[in-house]
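Practice problem: predict the structure.
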Amino acid sequence: LVDEHSGHPYFLARVVVPPSELRKLADPASGERQLRAGLPAQVVVPTRKRTALQFLLEPLNQALWHSMREQ
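Answer:
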């Protein structure tokens, strides 16, 4: 998808928050949930399984791979 105003590409994602997690967001005084449409969110989207070592070394591997490419 592409934003009509800026021309920047973006992904559309639908995120389901479990009810047990939503209860953690409730305001203690009113009991009202603080999650509202339009709020920024950080969502982790797993793309593949990796070991901790692979996760840590991936930026180095990518830098080395790109450094050996002719432009």
